[in-house]
Design brief:
Blueprint lengths: L1 E6 L6 E6 L2 E5 L5 H12 L8 E3 L5 H4 L2 H7 L4 E4 H6 L12 E4 L5 E3 L2 E7 L8 E6 L4 E5 L7 H7 L4 E5 L4 H6 L4 H8 L7 H11 L5 E6 L8 H15 L7 E5 L9 E2 L6
Parallel strand pairs: 3-4, 4-5, 5-6, 10-11, 11-12, 12-13
Antiparallel strand pairs: 1-2, 1-14, 2-3, 7-8, 8-9, 9-10
């Protein structure tokens, strides 16, 4: 299994996953042109090569390129009924019969990839995050949530790779220029994970095996990549020092795609 974070941040998110002949795009939060360019440059694939497109929720930074993508790819569009109902008019596909409704807690299979959508707490209609499992390894993509529940921690244990939200530094957010109503939304149970929130979740989630963690969905105004990395590393390793030679942290960006990674049980 191979994947690539094409973009991650408060204003654009997309990830590509490939396993055999199965080629999945998760979210389309960039323009169609940008999606196509990054997919081609990092993964040597075209939009027409996709076999499925999945969506976590209907916010613009996850569906911005949906309509353009749907014109260049014939892949079915997987999303919850709530996400479909909440799509803004500009993001509604021209062919609604291409939409496949999925439900949190109901896994499904696409070409050897077991996909488990699960509910998250966010201010969207019916948002989900995803765990992907294959014979070679597992990947969890968990962003846009106000907290990580005990049930989610149990579901997420034992993955080889995590793409996990570290949206903001709480002190930067509180002292920053955002109006208070927006700060309260971000800090709330239906908002976004802070660096500290993510770190404490990882303490419970990470197994004793090697793991990669991509620090994702960073705010451009209320976080810094180096601060997110330092915070997560310090908190996790203070609590789980045995992970010092098993945990690898990676930065993500809205401006550029990450290098593609092959996932296997011996990834680290």
């Amino acid at each position: 299994m191979e994947f690539c974070v094409l973009a991650s941040g408060s204003n654009g998110n997309s990830l590509y996953l490939e396993y055999g002949e199965t080629r999945i795009l998760l979210d389309a939060g960039l323009s169609g042109r940008q999606l196509e360019a990054r997919l081609r440059a990092q993964c040597q694939r075209e939009l027409r090569d996709l076999t499925a497109v999945l969506f976590t929720h209907e916010h613009d930074d996850h569906v911005k390129g949906l309509v353009q993508l749907a014109k260049k790819s014939q892949a079915p569009l997987y999303m919850t009924e709530g996400t479909y109902a909440g799509l803004p008019a500009k993001a509604r596909p021209d062919e609604p019969d291409r939409v496949v409704h999925i439900r949190a807690g109901e896994p499904f299979d696409l070409g050897g990839v077991r996909i488990t959508p699960f509910a998250v707490s966010h201010d969207a209609e019916e948002p989900v995050a995803f765990r992907f499992d294959t014979a070679e390894g597992s990947l969890a993509v968990v962003t846009d949530l106000g907290y990580v529940s005990d049930r989610q921690r149990e579901l997420l244990r034992g993955c080889d790779v995590y793409v996990l939200e570290t949206n903001h530094d709480t002190e930067m957010l509180r002292a920053g220029p955002y109006p208070w109503h927006l700060k309260r939304r971000i800090l709330g149970d239906k908002g976004h994970l802070s660096n500290v929130d993510a770190a404490y979740a990882l303490i419970d989630i990470l197994a004793d095996q090697p793991a990669h963690v991509y620090l994702a969905h960073l705010s451009g105004e209320n976080n810094l990549p180096e601060l997110a990395e330092l915070t997560v590393e310090q908190i996790v390793l203070d609590a789980r020092p045995e992970l010092a030679d098993r945990l690898r942290l990676h930065r993500t960006s809205r401006q550029a795609a990450c290098a593609a990674m092959k996932i296997s049980r011996a990834t680290v």
